[in-house]
Specification:
The complex is a heterodimer of chains A (475) and B (95). Chain A has 15 helices and 17 strands. With 475 residues, chain A is α+β, with helices and mostly antiparallel strands. In chain A, a hairpin with a 6-residue loop joins strand 9 and strand 10. By secondary structure, chain B is mainly alpha-helical. Chain B is 36% helix and 8% strand. The chains are: A alpha+beta (475), B mainly alpha (95). Strand 2 of chain A pairs parallel with strand 1 of chain B.
C-alpha cells in the first residue's frame, strides 16, 4: 500500500524587543543566571503584568507578512501546569482569540508553488531555563522567563520532509526580513516542534499523530521526519497500530525514540487572564504597522533582477537571507559589477559560512573589504585564484586584503621579463609536453600553464602567462 | 451529581493535592452542589451577549518597550530553599 504523510509544524520565535513581555527586565541573551529577573517575571504575590506594546506590533507585523487576518479583538489566557521553569505555575498565552489567524506562505517544490496555511500566530511568554549538568539536582535560571514569543502554527498542509524544510527556511527568512526575531537556533530564539501522521494515499481520515521534539536544526527536522515516516509505515505494515506519543530525535543515532512527558500535559485548564485587559487592533493601527513593513524577499528578488541585472537564480539565493541581501547592496554601491559580487557571495563566501556554521554578520569581513579585494583583482595586483586565498585569510582574521597581500608576498608577477625567465625554465624542464603541444595536443598547453602557476605559487598573471608561453612555444 | 469522584481525583492530581478517600467523597458532594448552583447561570438567555473577556470595560493598557533595572540576585534568591551557582535549585527533573 502507498502512504502519504500529513505534517504540521509549530515554531516558537523570540521577539526582538529590548524588554520582556510584561516587565522591564532586559531580554539580552547570555547574561549571568537570574540577573534579568524581577518580582513580575517571577510571579511574586502582589505584582501585576503590563503588556509591552512592541510585542503586539511585532506579532501583527509577522502576521501581515504571513498574510494573516489580524484580530480586531484579542485577549490573553492562562495555561496552567506545574514545572520548575515556570515560576507562576501558569504561562500567560493566548487560547481562543489569537492575534493573527488564517494566513499562508508559499514554498517552491520542483518548480511548483505550494501554499502552506498558517493556522494562527499568538503571543506568549517564554519559560526559564533548566540546567542539569554538574549538579545533583536541577538548576533554574529565570532570565528567559517572560521573554516574548510568537508561536506560529501551520495547517497540516505539509506532505513531505522536504516541504517541511522549505517551509521553515521561508518562514525564517520572513521573520528575519520583518525584523521581529533574530531566529538564532543555537541561542534558542527559534524552536521547532513538528507532528506527523501517515495514511493510505487517497484516504481522507487522519492517522495517529506523533509529536517530535529535540529538533535543533532545520536539517534535523527533515531527517527526523524522514525517519519517522518510514518507521510509521513499517509499524502499520507489520499490522501494528501506532500509539499516540511524543518522540525525541536522537541526532547521533539518527533515530526517533519514545520520550517520557509530563503526565496529563494536555489538560492545561485555560482561562482568561484576569490581570490583563483585552487587545484591540484598530484598522488605523494595523495600517500603520503595515506601512512599517520592510521590503519582503520576493519583492527584493524582483528588484535585484531589474535593478542590478542579476540572473534569477542569483537573485533568489542572495535575497533568501536579508543579511546577505544587505551585504550585497552595500558592495554594489561601491563596485561596478553586481554579478561579480554575487559570484563571490554565492561561491567562496557561502562556502566558508557553511563550513563554519556562521551567519554573514558574525564574520569580520565587511562589504568595504570585499570591494577592496575585487579591486585588487581588477588592477592586476593579484590573480583570481590568489584572491580566494586572501579571502579565506580575511574571513578568519578580519585583516584588510592589501595587508594580507603585502604580508604574504602574494602580489602577482606581471613583470614580463621576470615571467619569461620562469616560463623558459618550465619549457626546458618539460620537453615531452612541449612536443605534445607542437603535435597539436591542446591539453599540453594547460599543463604548462599549470607548471608556471606552480613555479610562481599561483602568482603569475594568467593573461600574460598565456601570451608569453605561446610566443616561446612558437619559437 | 454534577461531578464524579473520578473527576475530583483528576483535578486534585492536576493541582498536586492529596486527599484521603473520605475527603474525596466529601469534596465530590460539595463541588457538585457548587457546580449545580453555578449552573443556574445557564438559565439566562445569552444569545446576543458577547462573552466577557474582562470585567473592566477597558482595553489596550500597554507599557513602552523600555528596559528597567532588574532586582539584585541576592534578593531574588533570598527566599529560595536551595541555590547553587546563582540559580534556584530543585530536585532533579528527569526528562
Amino acid at each position: 500500500m502507498k502512504y502519504e504523510a500529513v505534517i504540521g509544524l509549530e515554531v516558537h520565535a523570540e521577539l526582538l524587543t529590548e524588554s520582556k513581555i510584561f516587565c522591564g527586565c532586559s531580554t539580552k541573551f547570555g547574561s549571568e543566571p537570574n540577573t534579568q529577573v524581577c518580582p513580575v517575571c517571577l510571579g511574586l504575590p502582589g505584582t501585576l503584568p503590563v503588556l509591552n506594546k512592541k510585542v503586539v506590533e511585532y506579532a501583527v507585523r509577522a502576521g501581515l507578512a504571513l498574510n494573516c487576518t489580524i484580530a480586531n479583538f484579542s485577549k490573553m489566557d492562562r495555561k496552567n501546569y506545574f514545572y520548575p521553569d515556570l515560576p507562576k505555575a501558569y504561562q500567560i498565552s493566548q487560547y481562543d482569540l489569537p492575534l493573527c489567524s488564517n494566513g499562508y506562505l508559499e514554498i517552491e517544490i520542483d518548480g511548483q508553488t505550494k501554499k502552506i496555511g498558517i493556522k494562527r500566530i499568538h503571543i506568549e511568554e517564554d519559560a526559564g531555563k533548566l540546567l542539569h549538568e554538574n549538579t545533583d539536582g536541577s538548576l533554574v535560571d529565570y532570565n528567559r522567563a517572560g521573554v516574548p514569543l510568537i508561536e506560529i502554527v501551520s495547517e497540516p498542509d505539509i506532505s513531505t520532509p522536504e516541504e517541511a524544510y522549505q517551509y521553515l527556511t521561508k518562514l525564517k527568512s520572513i521573520l528575519e526580513y520583518t525584523e521581529v526575531s533574530d531566529c538564532k537556533m543555537q541561542e534558542g530564539s527559534l524552536r521547532v516542534d513538528t507532528n506527523v501522521s501517515i495514511r493510505p494515499v487517497g484516504s481522507k481520515e487522519l492517522g495517529t499523530k506523533i509529536e517530535l521534539k529535540n529538533l535543533n536544526s532545520f536539517k534535523a527536522v527533515q531527517k527526523a521526519l524522514e525517519y519517522e515516516i518510514k518507521r510509521q509505515i513499517k509499524v502499520l505494515e507489520e499490522s501494528g497500530t501506532i500509539i499516540q506519543e511524543t518522540r525525541r530525535w536522537n541526532e547521533s543515532k539518527g533515530i526517533t525514540e519514545p520520550m517520557r512527558t509530563k503526565e496529563e500535559a494536555h489538560d492545561y485548564r485555560y482561562f482568561p487572564e484576569p490581570d490583563l485587559v483585552p487587545i484591540v487592533v484598530t484598522e488605523e493601527w494595523k495600517e500603520e504597522i503595515r506601512q512599517s513593513l520592510p521590503e519582503m524577499p520576493h519583492h527584493k528578488r524582483e528588484r535585484f533582477i531589474s535593478e542590478y541585472g542579476l540572473p534569477e537564480y542569483d537573485a533568489k539565493i542572495i535575497t533568501s537571507s536579508k543579511k546577505m541581501a544587505d551585504f550585497f547592496e552595500k558592495c554594489v554601491a561601491e563596485y561596478y559589477s553586481p554579478k561579480t559580487v554575487s559570484n563571490w557571495l554565492m561561491g567562496e563566501f557561502s562556502r566558508l559560512l557553511n563550513e563554519t556554521g556562521k551567519e554573514i554578520d558574525e564574520v569580520p569581513v565587511t562589504p568595504q573589504m570585499l570591494v577592496k579585494l575585487l579591486k585588487l583583482i581588477d588592477n592586476g595586483v593579484i590573480s583570481g585564484s590568489i584572491a580566494k586565498t586572501v579571502f579565506e585569510e580575511m574571513f578568519g582574521t578580519g585583516k584588510e586584503p592589501e595587508v594580507i597581500v603585502e604580508e604574504k608576498g602574494l602580489k602577482q608577477i606581471a613583470n614580463e621579463n621576470e615571467l619569461r625567465e620562469i616560463i623558459k625554465k618550465v619549457i626546458d624542464e618539460n620537453p615531452k609536453s612541449v612536443e605534445d603541444y607542437k603535435n597539436g595536443k591542446e591539453k599540453a598547453m594547460g599543463f604548462l600553464v599549470g607548471q608556471v602557476m606552480k613555479a610562481t605559487k599561483g602568482k603569475a598573471n594568467p593573461q600574460l602567462t598565456n601570451q608569453i608561453l605561446k610566443e616561446e612555444l612558437s619559437k | 451529581m454534577a461531578i464524579s469522584k473520578c473527576e475530583v481525583e483528576h483535578v486534585a492530581k492536576l493541582a498536586r493535592l492529596k486527599f484521603s478517600a473520605e475527603e474525596i467523597e466529601e469534596f465530590t458532594v460539595q463541588l457538585s452542589k457548587i457546580l449545580d448552583y453555578v449552573n443556574k447561570l445557564n438559565e439566562l438567555d445569552t444569545e446576543n451577549v458577547e462573552p466577557t473577556a474582562h470585567i473592566v470595560p477597558i482595553h489596550n493598557v500597554f507599557r513602552e518597550d523600555e528596559v528597567k533595572p532588574s532586582m539584585d540576585r541576592e534578593k531574588i534568591l533570598i527566599n529560595a530553599s536551595y541555590t547553587e551557582n546563582g540559580c534556584f535549585k530543585v530536585p532533579k527533573i528527569i526528562e
